Fold this protein.
Amino acid sequence: MAGRCCSMTHSPGLVTRGQIALQVKELGVSPGDTVMLHASVGSIGWIAGGPSEVLGGVLDAIGADGTLMMYVGWEGSPYDLLVNAPQVPPAILALWPPYDPATSRAMHAWSILTEYLRTWPGARRSQHPDSSFAAVGRLADELTRDHPLQYGMSESSPLAKLCQHNGKVLLLGAPLSSLTLLHHAEHLADVPNKRIVRYKAPILRDENKAWIDIEEFDTTECLPWRKPIDMFEAIARQYLQEGHGVVGRVGAATSYLFDAAELTQFAVDWIEEQFLEPPKEVSEAQVRIADDRDHRELADLYAAMEEERTGTPVSSSRLSTRIDELLEDRDRQVLIAETSEQLVGMLVARVESAQRGVLEYAFVDSGYRRHGILRELEIEASTYLREQGCSAVGFELDADNQVAREAWTALGYTPSRESWERPL
């Protein structure tokens, strides 16, 4: 059973502030509500008056007694340079500007609206440089003040206060994987082996820069989730299937409304059920060129890939001819990753032209993902294509495969008009 639905009628390409306010109310937002927003402005439509009208529409819906909050982060953070770094280079210590809640830019990549909300009249912003939240409205100061620098998604965080004040989470065209609230659930869940990160961050204190040691659960991979669907999306989809939450349309965007405290408790219970037992140790995988002896296991991997892609089981015996073709093709190199027990990954490199190579059939068994196997396969494939004279490599990727998009982005690929590619 899916969550309760409101009207699913599409709005025209042009969307007004008044339409947004009305449709947000149809989802279940009421005057006086405390709402955390995630939004993809482009998914909503052509906004009459510009992106700020999205915020205006939501603020109109919650009224003068309501509060609107977003996770805004810090565009200038040195986090990626310093996380788990043994030491900070002296030049970074000397030259990196500090985080100032009043002026430091919000993370544009999370949504164009983060900076709009940060600079909205009367906005308040929390003191944490990376887990920074901004809010506007009656409870803005309450939600954002006293944000702990250690474990920024903890019991004292803006997310915890959102739950305490019977808050709601509103997604306007944003994917379910963007539910920042579920980082709070990760923090609360009583399970072993949460990944901790440590780093230094420069903040402004008494008009002077101070480098602060910060420790928190890793927001990129707190728990060892290995399945193809994003963990937050898996939690949210089950929550909806069990009849919770509301789904509808705002403009042209599929949108969701969740009760913050209820979703958090659901997620805590879900995480504790999934991760109460420590995960099994994953054997190290080695990459090599496949040969005829790998035929059967290659067919099994190919079948698993097709089943994951289509949702329909495929008999590996039906793929035997295709495996023969791949192994015999002189313009292709079939690479496999294997542990001492089994094949766990495959990638095919094909010479498409004198200048360009193509990667095909990229697949890693779900139990072995996020262990660098795809990276090792890609390195060997790129080496082969470079030796064949190729100067660039690309591949095709389904537009809605967010997990794969993130994995290939981490390997240096960027989308072109027709495919993803990088120079060799």
About this structure: The chain has two domains: 4-275, 286-423.
